[in-house]
Write a structure and sequence with these properties.
An 8-stranded mixed sheet has the order 1-2-4-3-5-8-6-7, with helices on both faces. It is α/β, with parallel strands linked by helices. It is globular and about 45 Å long.
């Protein structure tokens, strides 16, 4: 999955690379990072996790998020706003050794310097958005709510139903929020096929 995403982002003209990190003493993973060549500070980060769980194909969790992230990257390529947007496909979101999760996004946050943290206006984690329902824009409730407000407002401006909701630490927005950055979890709610062998493409709304 990481190789595919890296190839796609590069084909759109982005500078794309892998950021490797250690999940455990014996397991490694990587994030895929993409930015527009020559771009300045990135104020928006669109993220989606690459992995699924054993036995589940992961069409909604999280093929839907990765597909959306790639389509946004394709859309922004070469446009005036491209330099201000960064795309990250996170590894090891589902992996939970000793109860740990969202390991790829936590590794990304650890490597951000203070300037990068200060310039980020919002991080959006696209995760399980493959159902034809109003969007839930979630956050843990410990970080700035500005990111949630911005995403809900943007959705409503284009007549997309959305509302903010305080949720648990369920997605890659968590490490950003815990570090004091505005972040949001874009979700379409309960999925009966979540982490099941039935999480397949026919059960995702085109």
């Amino acid at each position: 999955a990481a190789r595919y995403v890296l190839r796609e982002l590069s084909s759109y003209g982005y500078e794309a690379r892998r950021m490797k990190f250690r999940v455990s003493p014996t397991v490694r993973s990587s994030n895929v990072l993409a930015r527009w060549p020559g771009g300045g500070p990135h104020t928006v980060l669109i993220g989606a996790h690459l992995d699924t769980v054993r036995r589940s194909p992961g069409a909604n969790d999280n093929g839907s998020g990765v597909g959306t992230m790639l389509e946004l990257a394709r859309y922004f390529a070469g446009r005036p706003h491209a330099p201000s947007v960064r795309f990250v496909a996170f590894g090891a979101e589902e992996y939970q050794p000793n109860g740990k999760h969202h390991i790829g996004s936590a590794a990304y946050v650890r490597r951000m310097d203070q300037d990068q943290r200060n310039e980020l206006a919002v991080m959006v984690s696209a995760d399980m958005i493959g159902k034809l329902r109003p969007f839930i824009v979630g956050w843990i409730g410990i970080g700035p709510r500005a990111g949630v407000r911005a995403v809900v407002s943007a959705a409503r401006r284009v007549d997309v139903p959305a509302h903010g909701e305080r949720l648990g630490d369920l997605s890659d927005n968590g490490p950003f929020e815990r570090a004091g950055m505005p972040a949001a979890f874009l979700w379409t709610g309960f999925e009966p096929h979540h982490h099941e062998p039935t999480d397949r493409v026919p059960n995702v709304d085109r």
